[in-house]
Structures are given as C-alpha cells and as structure tokens.
Specification:
The chain is built from no helices and eleven strands. It is an all-beta fold.
C-alpha cells in the first residue's frame, strides 16, 4: 500500500515536495511514478523513475519544474515541484509498477496511493 503526502495550499511560484511511502512492501524493485488529476480532467502522467533512480522521465506538463527522486534505504519516492502554477492544482498520486521499463499510462501501474491535494493560488 502506498501513502502519498506533502500536498497543501501554496501560492504561485512556491515549491512543494511530495513523498510516497510504502506501508508494508519495499519499493526497491518497482518503477515509481507520479500522476495528477485536476477536477473534471483525466489523470495525467507527471514523472517516473526506475528502480535504482538512474532513469527519470517526465510528462510534458511539468516543463522542467519538477524533479522525481527516490531513496530506497527509506523506502520512499519524492516529487520536488518548483515554481508552481495555478494549473498545477490537482490531486497527486504516486504509483508503482513492477515493469522495469516503467510507463506513462495509468494502466501500466499496478499499485496506487490515495492521493494528496495540491492547490496553487494565483
């Protein structure tokens, strides 16, 4: 089971770091991903990172402002979000897949956290 945290209400230009932790199983073997879903919109891919952190890949929406990372010793993955914009307002979900090649589609991830709300005011 995955637990996402770190969301909140911030102003445009601020930063947030989201965390994802596995409550029981180790994340070490999984490709991790972050998705987000704004109200009334489909869930979209934000970022992914392979099991050892050497491969990172991003969706188009973050425009170089977000950085995904992981610490397998702490069984956690992170999403550092800088220069936040009101358009980043969404519920952010962490997800895991045992596919070492990862993916960008919702269907490619088998395990999901409950989501954490990020609200960016202008």
């Amino acid at each position: 089971q995955l637990q996402a945290s770190g969301g909140g209400l911030v102003q445009a230009g601020d930063s947030l770091r989201l965390s994802c932790e596995a409550s029981r199983d180790t994340l070490r073997s999984y490709t991790m991903g972050w998705f987000r879903q704004a109200s009334g919109k489909e869930r979209e891919f934000v970022a992914g990172i392979n099991w050892n952190g050497y491969v990172k890949y991003y969706g188009d929406s973050q425009k170089g402002r977000f950085t995904i990372s992981r610490d397998n010793t702490k069984n956690k993955a992170y999403l550092q979000m800088n220069n936040l914009e009101p358009e980043d307002t969404a519920v952010y979900y962490c997800a895991a897949t045992y596919d070492p090649l990862g993916g960008r589609r919702r269907s490619e991830f088998q395990y999901w956290g409950q989501g954490t709300q990020v609200t960016v005011s202008s």
